[in-house]
Design brief:
Largest sheet of chain A: 5 strands, mixed
Radius of gyration of chain B: 16 Å
Mean pLDDT of chain A: 93
Number of helices of chain B: 6
Shape of chain A: globular
Oligomer: heterodimer
Low-confidence stretches of chain A: 1-27
Number of strands of chain B: 1
Radius of gyration of chain A: 21 Å
CATH topology of one domain in chain B: Cytochrome Bc1 Complex, Chain D, domain 2
Strand order of the largest sheet of chain A: 4-3-12-7-8
Largest sheet of chain B: none
Number of helices of chain A: 5
Number of strands of chain A: 23
Chain lengths: 378, 116
């Protein structure tokens, strides 16, 4: 698919989506989040965020390991070094002069849904709102790496952003990508989010965008890239953000050598038009939400209003895209009673959501069938 | 279900003795119960993060000990004895079966000002 066509599709679908769900634009002062932690800033989006294809920037979740860096855009530099013939020191202006591309992709926190792991595991207790879908504009990372002329032995890219731990003894947030993924044509160094320069709390001035892959790779305010022959030994890559090659019994220890870096996002869907505890008036209500999958499109979304006994196909608003949200919709004629409303998605590769979270020590990649309990009154 | 309710009640009574409902509410809302260890926990843990990072966790004793040790490796200035006291305090209140935490509904925090 050419980028121009993708942009056209994106624009058309966004327009259609806003026509269907016009009430969800962000507004200053609205309580559009749940505060998970005050310091560092970790805020998840409320369910109502997930009825539109593009997540407005001001409603996009916030995830931080440390205090936000304050970056001087004028003096910011990105250093590219290691196994390269031509080390680089690039400014924002240097990147802005290069060919720019725009693509739509879901940013999904690895720990989104951790709260539902049983037994519980440590970490920010995200429920459902540590994700969003944006249009990212920037340069292809492969174009930047090509300028640096990687040496033949380069196989991995280690990289980090401007954020610093509160203590010098705390490991910095350093990540690593296989060079093949770094050189994928859709992997970007993004300067803009939803058409605007990246805000200070979203990675200003440049962040890594790894479409289809989990958010731990999407380093913000990137300042350093090192090409290497071997994988990084940095804490947040070699120990943190790891998932078992084969998940075991809930609560069981997994040997470190069986823990691997996460890659693609699992197929997932969420109901956005309802939230737990809602009380509706009897009548017709739209069941609206979003579905996505890391490296596949969305083929089918089903909804249930009887706790999963009976399932009905939802229809889609807009086309399936390689990395973005696909909005689904089904009208429901609701009679008085208590209901558990569910949704589940199937991607174009045939992957389906599990009925229950797949337990793992980090509480990562929870893509269990989504459930909301509500009441309908006459 | 009966067993779960009994466990919840036992956990809540351990916190506030005579008023389990108030104790459960305090846990879900992120309050840190008064306890001899509370000032130590505040002094050591909150150098880098707010208390809500602790009060939303629901962990067993082994998980708490491992987590506090990890924080010491990250730089939390705590002695062996202090690690034990902090782990015991956290294990006492924020157990696997404590009532779920309730995150606070909030507006977006103010964005930091760019340097230029």
């Amino acid at each position: 698919m050419s980028l121009n066509r993708r942009e056209l599709l994106t624009g058309a679908a966004v327009a259609a989506c806003w026509l269907r769900a016009p009430t969800l634009a962000g507004a200053k002062g609205r309580q559009d989040f749940f505060r998970m932690t005050e310091r560092p800033l970790n805020y998840e989006s409320v369910r109502g965020t997930f009825t539109t294809r593009i997540t407005p920037t001001e409603r996009f979740y916030l995830r931080n390991h440390f205090d936000l860096p304050v970056v001087d855009v004028e003096t910011w530099r990105l250093e590219v070094h290691g196994l390269v013939d031509k080390p680089l020191s690039l400014s924002v202006a240097d990147l802005t002069r290069m060919p720019q591309v725009t693509l739509e992709a879901v940013l999904h926190c690895a720990g989104n849904g951790r709260h539902f792991m049983a037994p519980h595991v440590p970490g920010v207790q995200w429920r459902y709102g540590a994700m969003g879908n944006a249009r990212w504009t920037g340069v292809r990372l492969k174009d930047v790496l090509a300028l640096a002329a990687p040496k033949a032995g380069a196989a991995f890219m280690q990289y980090q952003g401007a954020e610093k731990p509160m203590m010098s003894t705390t490991p910095p947030f350093v990540r690593c990508l296989p060079l093949a993924k770094a050189q994928h044509p859709d992997t970007l160094l993004a300067l803009r989010m939803n058409g605007q320069p990246l805000p200070a709390d979203r990675g200003q001035p440049v962040r890594v965008v790894v479409p289809g892959w989990v958010g731990d790779d999407w380093v913000r305010a990137i300042v350093d890239i090192e090409l290497r022959a071997d994988e990084s030994t940095a804490f947040y890559y070699a120990s943190g953000y790891r998932y078992p090659a084969t998940p075991g019994a809930p609560g069981a220890a997994i040997p470190p050598e069986q823990m691997k870096p996460m890659t693609k996002i699992n197929v997932k869907s969420i109901i956005g038009s309802l939230t737990d505890g809602d009380v509706l008036k009897a009548g017709v209500h739209p069941l609206v939400g979003v579905a996505f999958s890391g490296e596949a499109g969305i083929d089918r979304v089903e909804v249930s209003t009887d706790g999963g006994k009976t399932w009905y196909d939802a229809s889609f608003v807009g086309p399936s895209t390689p990395y973005g949200f696909r909005v689904f919709h089904r009208d429901w004629k609701a009679a008085p009673g208590r209901y558990q409303v569910l949704c589940r998605a199937t991607d174009t590769a045939g992957a389906k959501q599990p009925d229950a979270p797949v337990w793992n020590p980090g509480g990562y990649l929870n893509n269990a069938v989504d459930r909301v309990t509500i009441e309908v009154r006459s | 279900m009966t067993m779960i309710v009994a466990l919840l009640l036992a956990s809540a009574r351990a916190i506030a003795g005579e008023d389990p409902a108030a104790a459960a509410a305090a846990l879900t809302e992120g309050s840190m119960p008064d306890d001899a260890a509370k000032p130590l926990v505040q002094g050591k843990c909150m150098l880098c993060h707010t208390g809500d990072y602790l009060t939303q966790q629901r962990l067993n004793e082994g998980q708490w000990q491992k987590t506090v040790e990890k924080m010491r490796k990250f730089g939390a200035p705590a002695s062996d004895e202090e690690v034990k006291i902090i782990s015991a305090y956290l294990s006492k209140y924020w157990t696997q079966d404590a009532p779920p935490a309730k995150p606070v509904r909030a507006a977006a925090p103010p964005a930091p000002r760019p340097a230029r």
